[in-house]
Amino acid sequence: MNLGRIEALKSQHSRLETELAALAKRPFPEPELITRLKRQKLLVKDQLVAAGVMSPRPERALVLSH
Fold first, then answer.
1. What pLDDT band is residue 56 in, cutting at 50, 70 and 90?
2. What is the largest CA-CA distance in the chain?
3. Is the dihedral angle over the CA atoms 24, 26, 31, 32 positive or is it negative?
4. How many structural domains does the chain have?
């Protein structure tokens, strides 16, 4: 993947994060819009992971109660 494409994906990922944060602050956010934006963001992240630019999401550690 060329550098221009990677930069475009990074920019798109950042823009989607910003949009999601703004929607979360609204009094009545649209669930369908949030879902659509989250899916787009995940698709962009998958492309960045495939290009070796981002690391995949770390697995959540299991917390064992004693």
1. confident
2. 51
3. negative
4. 1
